Amino acid sequence: MRPFTYVAAGTPKEALKAAANSSASHYLGGGTNLLDLMKEDVERPEQIVEVADLDLAQVKKNKGGGYTIGATLSNSATANHPDVRNNYPLLSMTILAAATVQIRNMATNGGNLLQRTRCPYFYETSMPCNKREPGSGCGALNGSNAGHAIFGWSESCVATNPSDMSIALAALDASVRVQAPDGSSRLIPFNDFHRLPGDQPEKDTTLRPHELVLAIELPAPIYKDHYYYLKIRERSSYAFALISVAAGLEIKNDRITKVGLALGGVAHKPWKLTSAEEFLVGKAPTEENFTQAATLALKDAKTLEHNKYKVPMSEKAIARALAQAYARKA
Amino acid sequence: MKTNNIKGTGEAINRVDGRLKVTGQATYAGEFSVKNKVYAQGVNSTIAKGKITSIDVTEALAQPGVIEVITYQNALKLKGHEKDLPAIDNTTPMAVLQSPDVHYYGEYVALVVAETIEQAQYACRLVKIEYAKEEALTDFAAAKSTAIKPAAPEDYFRGDVEKGLAEADETLEVTYVTPIEHHHPMELHTAIATWMGDEVEIYASQQMIDNSVKTIANTFDIPEKNIRVISPFIGGGFGSKLQTHRHVTLAVMAAKMTGRPVHVTVTRTQMFTNTTMRQRNEQKMRLGATKDGKLTALAHETLSHTSTYEQYQEPCGTVSKMLYATPNNEVKHRLMPLNLQTPFAMRAPGEAPGSFALESAMDEMAWKLGMDPIEFRIKNDTQTDPSNGKPFSSRLLNECLRIGADKMGWENRPKTPRSRREGSWLVGYGVSAASRASPYQESAAKVILRAKGGEVHATVQTDATDIGTGTYSILAQTAAEYLQIPIERITVELGDSRFPVTPGSGGSWGAASFSMGVKVACDNVLKELKEKVGMSEDAQANVAQLLLDNNLATFEATGTATPDEGRAGYSVFSFGANFTEVWVNEHTGMFRIKRMVNVSSAGKILNPKTAYGQILGGLTMGAGMVIAEQTKVEPNFGNFITRSFADYHVPVNLDMANVEVIFLPEEDKIANAMGIKGVGELGITGVASAIANAIFNATGKRFRDLPITPEKMVMAEVEAGVV
Ligand SMILES: Cc1cc2nc3c(=O)[nH]c(=O)nc-3n(C[C@H](O)[C@H](O)[C@H](O)COP(=O)(O)OP(=O)(O)OC[C@H]3O[C@@H](n4cnc5c(N)ncnc54)[C@H](O)[C@@H]3O)c2cc1C
Ligand code: SF4
């Protein structure tokens, strides 16, 4: 085992202070991703700052009508929280489609946002991977890439973000509240939180060194009636998405007034389908419009050797998720 | 609670070892506490072919707790293979770390021995190895020209297939593909070896104790009597623990070299590369049939791969020789040596993939002929094994098919593909036949009687193993029945090479062979006790009473069951039929198996509960073949890119159906005196085709390449112009 120091932080301030002391420090949430990666020798922290006990495990209503969901609340507690279920059923449904009960009980919201790709080259230290070892090459680019990106990839990395929860958060236009070691805090719009690989695939997010995730901020309750999370996977549960769709609709007088739509399993970040959203606003919730939106959403897809299936699969899934969302209370 | 209930064979009792297992008291190989034990961890090659040019162990050796690093440079010299590409079996020597040559990605190239497992694992990463890499062959398509005729099985011909095809009203020529699959028993492979002078004692998770002793003797060139192998509980094997794999060699070698007991555990990732696997099989099927459904020809050609240093051919075509009556039959196997590890038997080797091909092709032909696939099979039934002309000892395949059809409501199935819908689900029904040889082999046991407070207790000892199948229970039931001693007073002790020899668990012969061995030992103990007390052999007597009446504290006897000559005149197989109802989601391409009915004709069922467990497990593994199980080879590096359970998907509970298993009441006294056949492998046989046939019935699309993933579903629609 590689030696590391362990700090149990009691407050965000303590956590930030401890983290700033080491260049190779990691926060530890539920550990369901970090510890696995340490066992695989992929992550090699010199210091671990456990944040699971920070006083951030709440769901709070904000003045503006939205809600703040604490970073250390577990995925299970979040999905089953009455305020989340009632106000953001899309988020509940999405979280419950991920992993297993046991893992969701351990996993924290902060850790979920920062879980790393499941690209097998990233996991196998004997193979090249720019994300794990910058400059070593991307094994997947011309290798086994059935699970990889069709949007926003670069020659240096074609990985996808594996989080289900993040897909709903992208559809919901959430933001992430983070704090820096100097005590300052900032709010990052969800779409800017994860990044595309570009030539720095080792960076998954726009977080600055040692920044701590405090919470997820949600806008006023939305898509309470029309929502759906469709996850296509290789078995009925306990598998990451091949592709997934989070869809929310607001409908008035048989017209779509607002749409939240994001696609998972297709890019280095949750893939917000802005053009499809824009297309649907003001239109009638019909199958035909849903299909057109889906076609539009996939227009700029760029496939790799083994992932061509993701285009038709995504198109079908987007149309289906929208139809299911509409049908929930139609 | 004490009862005087004997609880003999045929009763659905709970596992006699169940309490031990659920309370953590059943000790598995890796759980034995051995004094002074150290841990060792294998280092895997990171190229698929080439030579080691340098090894630097300095840094690894300098780590705290590290005791030794073993490489080809300092390893004990072991006996290697005497010829190139030998056909392997259950006792083939397992030499390791003998040369700088690398044959596949993940091969053991070093072993680190340390005081703790963490120290060993860490130091493994510090062993610096350089290679001269050579061009490896791991691509199936590119390797086809390298295919050789395997050492076994021989090509088989009956009649003239070309003639049969020419005479047919309908013909079919299709190829089915099954991917590399891995056994992945829950319990990792493990071994703890301790030398005591010239003798070595090994706790290991092994299905076959005696063969394990032989392998170690062969590998180290030491007498079998100096080796003791102990394996009382095994957390699943599925064939992967038939052979005594190289981690056992490593444990024995490292223990010798360090003078300490050494514990080697194969990690889950190493389970992919350092145990064994089922190879990818491409099976070309050619069928001919007359309008009224008589098969005129059946040809089954299998293309598989083996390693570059050993050969194993999965006999996929065997099932096509015996299952249906056809005058013209041809079965061939070809083998490509690739830079991948050597494959070996995995649950129903041959039948599992072979019956996927045969039973899917039968379904395709039935559809072409416009016949009910059940009637088509019945039309081609035979009570004589066409491959050798011997009558089947019993063959109730037609009954299995008819009874299953009744249970399933087969007459209400969608008669044409893509004709039934439930919301966005397409509904289909599928059927397949199953057959699996029921071998029976020489098997011995010892019975020890002890008088205790006016009661007689019996201990049964054999080197048989319980790989989760229920051996403890059925042997306790057998002893209870043949000794007429209540089962609470029977203790069964298994998995120790000091006990009488059995063939071990494998090939579905365990239940029949072990039980017969115990029966003979029970018969002998009564016979010999009568002799001892001067009673005539024919006199009625109860063994327990006899012991008590004669004031004997203890008495023991051994017995060996041997297949009799009567059996040799017959072909002995278990038969079955599988029925499935599958729902395919037209939007996601995901499918759900809603219902499965299995009817099995497998001789006397010793314990309906454990036998049900075997069939259920087989059905689940068969479902896994269709749902998601596949090991993928990386195209540029030649390693397995599926390297954990996150990538290699086995079915989850939600994937499994409402399952019904029916055993036909049967005792096959030709098979053996107790009427037992095997169930361990029957359950997986044909399952994949019953599901794939249902998917065809649901969607109108044939998937001949397993597994049938959402990806394949959607691409099939793209090809068909639906999307
Ligand atoms: C077998 C398996 C199956 C899974 N299946 C799915 C699935 O289907 N869908 C899915 O979405 N996920 C799945 N997951 C992933 C799982 O959701 C994540 O592992 C989990 O959400 C991570 O949360 P954690 O608290 O355990 O994170 P940790 O492992 O503790 O941390 C992950 C990362 O986040 C960082 N971190 C943690 N908290 C903070 C914080 N407050 N501020 C800054 N950085 C922080 C850590 O430093 C680390 O880099 C699966 C995981 C496993 C093991
Ligand atoms: S896709 Fe990204 S994570 Fe995967 S090998 Fe390439 S660089 Fe590494």
TrEMBL record, chain A:
UniProt-recorded Gene Ontology molecular function terms: xanthine dehydrogenase activity
Keywords (A to Z) from UniProt: FAD, Flavoprotein, Oxidoreductase
EC number: 1.17.1.4
Annotated signal sequence range: none
Boundaries of every FAD-binding PCMH-type domain copy: 1-223
SUPFAM superfamilies the record matches: CO dehydrogenase flavoprotein C-terminal domain-like, FAD-binding/transporter-associated domain-like
Superkingdom per UniProt: Bacteria
InterPro entries: CO_DH_flav_C, CO_DH_flav_C_dom_sf, Diverse_Substr_Oxidored, FAD-bd_PCMH, FAD-bd_PCMH-like_sf, FAD-bd_PCMH_sub1, FAD-bd_PCMH_sub2, Mopterin_DH_FAD-bd
Protein name per UniProt: Xanthine dehydrogenase YagS FAD-binding subunit
Organism: Neolewinella antarctica
TrEMBL record, chain B:
Residue ranges that the Swiss-Prot or TrEMBL entry lists as coiled coil: none
UniProt source species: Neolewinella antarctica
PANTHER family: ALDEHYDE OXIDASE 1-RELATED, XANTHINE DEHYDROGENASE
Annotated keywords: Molybdenum, Oxidoreductase
A Pfam short name: MoCoBD_1
Domain Aldehyde oxidase/xanthine dehydrogenase a/b hammerhead intervals: 23-135
One MF term in the entry's GO annotations: xanthine dehydrogenase activity
Name of this protein: Xanthine dehydrogenase YagR molybdenum-binding subunit
InterPro entries xrefs: Ald_Oxase/Xan_DH_a/b, Ald_Oxase/Xan_DH_a/b_sf, Ald_Oxase/xanthine_DH-like, AldOxase/xan_DH_MoCoBD1, AldOxase/xan_DH_MoCoBD2, AldOxase/xan_DH_Mopterin-bd_sf
EC number: 1.17.1.4
Stretches that traverse the bilayer: none
